[in-house]
Structures
1.
Amino acid sequence: MKLSKFFILLFTLTLSVSVLAQRSPVQEPMVFETQQQEDRFNQLTQELRCLVCQNQNLADSDAQLAHDLRAEVHEMLMAGKSDDEIKMFMVERYGDFVLYRPPVQENTYLLWLTPLVLLLSGAVILRVIIKKRTVLLESAPDEEPENQNS
Amino acid sequence: MNSRIYPLLGFLLLIVLLVVGLNIADRKTNLPSPLIGKPVPVFDLPVLASPGQNMSKESLLGKPYLVNFWGSWCITCRAEHPVVTELAKLNAVYIIGMNFRDEPQDAVAWLKKWGNPYNVSLTDFDGRVSIDFGVYAAPETFLVDPSGTIVFKHLGQLTWEVVETEILPRLANMESGS
Amino acid sequence: MTVELGQISLLAALLTALVLGLLPMIGSYTGNRRFMAVSTTASLVQCLLLMVAFGILTSAFIIQDFSVEYVARNSNSLLPMGFRVSAVWSAHEGSLLLWELILSIWIAAVALFSKRLPEVFRSRVLAVLGWISVGFLLFILLTSNPFGRLIPSAVEGLDLNPLLQDFGLIVHPPLLYMGYVGFSVAFAFAVAALLGGEVSRDWVRWSRPWTLVAWAFLTIGIALGSWWAYYELGWGGYWFWDPVENASFMPWLVGTALIHSQAVTEKRGAFGNWTLLLALSAFSLSLLGTFLVRSGVLTSVHAFASDPTRGIFILVYLGVVVGGSLTLYAARAPKMIQGGGFAGLSRETFLLINNLVFAVLAAMVLTGTLYPLLIDAIGAGKISVGPPYFGLLFTWLLVPIVLAMPIGIYSRWQQDSGSRLISKVRWPFLMALAVGTIVWIMQPDIGFVSAAGVTGGAWVILGSLFYVVQMMTSKNRISIPASVLAMTLAHVGVGVFLIGLSLVSTLSTEKHLRMEAGDKYEMAGYTFEFLGTSIVQGANYSADQGEFIISKGDREITRLYPQKREYAQRGNTMTEAAIDPGFTRDLYVSLGEPLDQNGQAWAVRVYHKPFIRWIWLGAIFIMAGGFLAAANKRYRRKMTAKEPVLTGTKEVTA
């Protein structure tokens, strides 16, 4: 083979290899500099939702999109972005759906408040019932209840 | 009103919710785009099979355009292809084919086989730009107005009904607006 | 030819269920004893017919009759025998048949073991169960028939989903359904009580063993599901607050409140309406769960294939059964307060707190599960509610329960004194604090919440054990009543569960790394050495099997063989993790992807999970406590029809 042809072939091969390498910017498993980064990564990918899966987080999904989004998270994390910034990145593109921890905002006030309201109502109900029963007890004291076990 | 009726009332509300839920069940994973009304994401991408040529969003200011995300691996893209071709024939809007997560040669072969309806085809090889657009399935189609703002997104197969009811009217508005 | 017999059996079962629903009920109002007696025969015949139908479907799987569509969809000629049987309930139609079979078994059991109940009451209970069965049989026959033929018949089946080709499928659904479906008995008892206008507490005593057994089954069913997910899915998770998981957890929460409320109503006459409502709610939540799982309304990895027709049917069924029972409750539940009074500090109060907190817990899970649907339905956007929400709220709501539990165990009926209680629980409390502090000092990484969880778990365990010890020493004997043992077992189980949960949440470590043959990785004092992979053949799959040597220091502890399987028929790739289980920790290894062409380098996931088995061990204790409590001889005592009926506010004893 002529030398020039050889070099052209080599050049093309190198180009295609580098193009392929560009295809998957980060190969898994991801590499981190500190344990803290890795923990943050695990935490974040567990809180972010895989959008093409049937209810799975980014950490556990094998989908192509999940892989690409994990790569994005990794890149941002290594670039020094904070957890909030990374989550914001996702929300700007995919909406609140991508967060498994629903943000506290207008359409989630009810969600976050309901348990609290329920608990408080429970406390009120408890008070009311105890009051009624205490009155009952004082007005007509029972005999000593048998069988104190269980 | 005695308190014993509350459980029943609560349950009736629940039933109403579930009935509605059944009706919207087939659309439950259709995510609305948070990009509607926002500037189109920055992109500067190579033109398909034309090494050295790039296109950026800046060069598109001043006219509306459609961005259609597709891949040769995507079966639904094949299904919507006739509609895209029809739309292209109307010459109503500049259509950009955004080929993503695909090998350029596969994309070229696909267009050759089925026909190329796009005014220009760009390659988003690693899918970065598709992520910026919030694309999670294919195909997805975005309509951008002359000022570079996204005004509409359609998830999934493009149908002529969507073209007639959503895309063409908006284009007409842009015409009369300018 | 035989599968059509299965269809006929189902039709016959439907007719039988109709008879069961009608005649005994009519007889209970007209006094027709022959009609009422039909209940026993009808119940047994129905059960027999369902067994026949189920047996026919099972045999179709065993002989691999691919002319039956359901078999063709869920089986394959290479499928090993054990899985062929469990494949029967692996998908929608078959699992519904299992549901209905189990319902018919419960109904037959009630028919056989409640002969001593007053006739009128008993007939109504069985009639209500009959109606529930009618609804399910109609559902199966009209929308989800497993006996449909495939014409032309398939040459080869589509294969059982590889994820389901596992021991977990053999045990989890049947045991779960025993619980899920079993709550229908408590439901039927409550409806019969409302119909009869009885407010005597006998119906509660009669329903207790049935409720306890169902609850115990549900406990182990859920625990098995969690354990199965853990070892099957490959990344060490055991609970995701997925809608289907929540669908089984809500009945459990309400069921827990129910078994405690029943105790108060039986012994003290109070909380009768609570008990009624909880009994109705537990099964209602089971039905709701069935709806959520099969209608396609919510997104879930567990969801069966969804179909709008099926969704509508279940919704109508749900509306009739639950709406009907709640209407009955609104109309017939006693208006006046029953039972005696009690003081602010009393056993009744503690059990009331229990009722309230578990009800709030169930409501919280329901809210979180349905909230995305609500927001979508009103057009307010699309959001997700996942583990961060549920986990956080669950933890907070556990606090009052954990705090109250040991104190409640010691508390006296009607009136107790703070000083007495404090003196009883002082030592367990201090010891628990010590345990928590020591653990926290030894492992500062766990953080406050986890340490508090450990303290809480220890507090529950110690409080329960001290109670038994105190009982033994005060009465100077070694044997304690079975009921006390049962209660202790269950409560200790809760404590064990809590400790396991707290520790594994904060102490577990995981690492994803690239490994080549000869590479070693050290984690938590263990060394994982990768020896490479080899090809292994299974009955219907071929796998890359990795070999890992696990050592501690110089000593080899075990070898683990995780696999990456490829199933021939469906072409799925599946991860089969390898686990070294232990009382104090699990070591867990799974293969990810091969990282180079010849499979020399692999992405590997390595986990160290301290005390994770305590989660399921706790559940086993809880289940055991439930079964033991149900076996109490007291429930098998002769029951007369002339039990005292409560009038007004004061209890009138015979």
2.
Amino acid sequence: MPIQNLNIDTLFDSLETAIRCQIAERKLKNPLLVGIHSGGAWVAQHMHRRLGLVEALGLLDITFYRDDFSQIGMHPRVKPSQLPPQLEGRDIILIDDVFYTGRTIRAALNEIFDYGRPNQVLLAVLIERDGRQIPLRPDCFGARIALPDGQRVKITGPEPLGVCIQTAVCAA
Amino acid sequence: MTKHLQLTEQGRLKHFLTIEGLSKELLLEILDTAESFAGMSGHQVKKVPLLRGKTIVNLFFESSTRTRTTFELAATRLSADVLTMNIATSATSKGESLLDTIRNLEAMHVDMFVVRHALSGAAHFIAQHTAAHISVINAGDGQHAHPTQAMLDMFTIRQLKKQFSGLKVAIVGDILHSRVARSQILALNTLGVAEVRVIAPKTLLPVQVKNMGVIDLHDMAEGLADVDVVIMLRLQKERMNSAFLPSESEYFRCFGLTEAKLKYAKSDVIVMHPGPINRGVEIDSAVADGPRSVILQQVSNGVAVRMAIMSMAMSGHGVVA
Amino acid sequence: MSRILIQNGRIVDPANHLDAVGSLCIEDGKIKAILTEPAGFSADTVIDAVDKVVCPGFIDLSVRLREPGQGHKGSIATETRAAAKAGVTSLCLPPDTRPTIDTPAVVEFIKDKAEKAGYPQVYSIGALTQRLAGTELSAMFALKQSGCIAVSNASAPLVNLLILRRAMEYAGSHNLLLMYRANEPSLSGNGCAHEGEVASRYGLPGIPEAAESIALAQCLELAELTGCRVHISQVSCRQSVIKIQQAKKYGLNITADVAIHQLHLTENDMIPFDSAYHVIPPLRSEIDRKFLLDGLAGGILDAVCSDHQPHDLDAKLGAFPETESGVAALETLLPLMLDLTRQHGLSLSKAIAALTQRPAEILGLDAGALTVGFPADICIFDPSANWQVNAQNWLSVGRNTPYWGQTLSGRVMHTLQAGRLIYNFQDDSQ
């Protein structure tokens, strides 16, 4: 998808469609939505509303599971992870805003599995961009883009949510 | 100099030896980080992998069960490997020099020393002479500092009082010999409380104690008037034998915290004690076990605070130049 | 018939009220002439001292050579070389060697070693009590006969005042000077720092000022009672200066010295837990330092010494309270004295007198002055030469000085002892 056409509502529509598709195809039972702080949590909140789920949204802070602790240390304000006490056998839809290198997702998976053994984990992201460094990929995405060197894509929020390419125009 | 010893060039924590030289912002960062860890023990998962693969050595030249076990627990919850060494230093057996002990352990590729020693300045010495990649945490050196205890006390105060500004804090007991008190005074003043009072007989106060940023008093009625926080210090039995005090009962009568004396303080005062407590000497059981006491809360905060300090000290070391 | 001419130097000789540029002639190890050259004097050696100061060689009242007994910290050979480099031509060795200087045999040993090292002017100070244990009088007469210049308790206490009284009476009866280091052990305890603001903040066991001044007061009273000549060694605090002033005012024949570092450093200079600042008596407050400085300027304190205590590396490695106290102080003595003239208004003449004339008077030596006929003990120094305290510029085995790595101003160029050149800066370039 051309970068100039990124529109937040369009992204959400696409993602919702994709997720509903996967829920049906994979026959997910009572899926638990888990958003990764901070951008993923905002996206997950919107998805939670759109999907009309009853169970509370799960939230993950991966600060303690990052692999760059030795290099850059730790941000002090770690938001508490909120997951239901029992993860055994659950179907989880893991939600993040941007999928880039894959390290965030690796950390999130490590954390989830430390809590318990889910039945399956589905990865849904608003934007998948090029630059993967870990052999993981999203199951659902709102859009797939490629970015030239030196540019990043960020989701801004929480209200209003927007998508922004760092060195170009911000699109709401 | 202490500031430069404890911090990296980027101003990040490298060693944690004393509160002196640390900014208010850094102390608050420690408290915030501890907050993140505090929620953990309620979880199914009590461990995080932050320090996996790291080796932490508890070097205890002075024996201590409670401090040692909280450090062990903190290290374990960070997924580090822990080694505890209790090195008895008796007058007769000189044993290995401090430096040799350190060098031998360094040869086994360790990442952090948690040191408790009977002499002031021991942790500083180790930090200055240890290999560049190793962090040193002071678990109490002589009469100088016990900064992790002070931080868990600050954490407890913040939990219960929300803000430091405007607080009146009284520390009661053997200030002269107390490394905990010295660290608490520094932390309280750096964090900006309104007033720090020390209450003790003159024999148990350091000379020129006012220069440490406190008001010194010898009377509990005056000293506890209107305070928000009372910190009781442990009185060691040998003070009676070395002519600091006549007897435990006289000390208790003057300076022991009873419910009657507590009434001088604010009605929502909190009572703290670094432990272990001497019931009937510095504090009455009714107060220690009473509604204003937060002593057990201090203990449970100890692990989270030490996890915060250890992880902050270990972070950012592998920076590629 | 060795003749030496030192020319063009600024000759400063407080004992003879001299401060003028000119020549100094030496013959046969003695001072032959000052400011004039005797007719027909042809020198074998000429030393050009232009822009330098020429003064009597320094007499250091307390220098530990660490021999016999502590070879890992230094030796008579190494430390006398450092003394020569420091412009010191006579030094007093306190009795706390191992074994202590309480028998003539030890005195002879030291004399012998000193001569072999080419530095014979080492004056042993005998122990006041046997083994410095503070209980039994030492054989002071024998010690004096074998060459001890005085007796001292080093830093060891006497068991009680009665023993001190007897020791002073006995020393007095042999006309021996007592060099007394005042300390009341029950008050100083295991203290390692001045009992004041800094020790309180850092939780270091403190030594109150009173520990020194009380012992000093007791000694002064006993000096009056016994008539013993007393010199107070290494005063460190205001109260001591006051008591010495009072005693002198009331006619008591006492003298006192202060260690050079006490005139410069205070508790506030101590980098936390840096054992280079671990000294006994401890570095005290700014008020004490001011009193010591004023005391020196006003003549209440008579002399300055280095209190040289070289240490091996291990002695200073450890938590502060467990490290050994003392500074290696010979080679920094001159520049630090000159700093007092530069920054604290002490006249050059008073400064040099405190290192030469006064110690000589205290010890009763024909020295410390450029008097014709005296032994040619001379120091020639460059007051403005800057040098860094580092391994290239340091001769003492002990490197334990808070000035390590710093650049100081003032350097000895030549030192002559009884007319022999025992130090020449040109030999330094390695």
